[in-house]
Amino acid sequence: MTSKCLPKPASRSTMNFLEFKILWTDYEGMVKLAVSGSSSTHAAYHETHLYPEDLKAFAEELKEYPRASDAEVVLECGGKGPNVHDYFRLRVFLLKVTGASALEFESEVRGDPPLRAESHFFIPGWPGDFNRVGTKLIAWLGDTSTPLRIEWNNDL
């Protein structure tokens, strides 16, 4: 039995998004964070552990992005070593000096199939889109009782 690849749909979604949800908080204040991200062609979901201050520091840097032509803002959790359960990275960087930017979404969960998973793709945007992500993240960190979804147009 062979499978056929279906043709791409005629229309693409024009919205990119990031969604953040706190799944639980431990006794030391560390949170289990669920992050979903999507471009018009790729999407992923990842759960990771971090401290809210790390997410706030990432958000603060996004509010001021870009500070220079080689600017990048990174949130990184876990590690790529074989003894670490997962690795997660969001990285925003300039594609062109005109301001065109991208958010890199990199996710890896180790283990044996069916638990093992990897995803790595880019979500386009403008500095103003990522400034807004930072501003909304900071506001959301004051009350994380509901998920935060931030959308922006795919108009690069």
Description:
- The strands form two sheets. Strands 3-2-1-8 form a four-stranded antiparallel sheet. A four-stranded antiparallel sheet has the order 4-5-6-7.
- It has one domain (15-145): Transcriptional Co-activator pc4, Chain A.
- The protein is globular and about 40 Å long.
- By secondary structure, the protein is an alpha+beta fold.
- It contains two helices and eight strands; from the N terminus they run βββαββββαβ.
- β2 and β3 (43-50) form a beta hairpin.
- α1 (52-63) runs antiparallel to α2 (127-141).
Write the layout of secondary structure elements.
Elements: E1 15-25, E2 31-38, E3 43-50, H1 52-63, E4 72-78, E5 86-94, E6 101-109, E7 117-125, H2 127-141, E8 148-153
Helix pairs in contact: 1-2
List keywords for this structure.
Transcriptional Co-activator pc4, Chain A, 4-stranded antiparallel sheet, alpha+beta, 156 residues
The number of domains is: 1
- Into which percent range does the helicity of residues fall? 10-25%
Q: Counting H and I runs of at least 4 residues, what is the number of helices?
A: 2
Shape: globular
Name the strands of the widest sheet in spatial order: 3-2-1-8
Question: Short description, anyone?
Answer:
With 156 residues, this protein is α+β, with helices and mostly antiparallel strands.
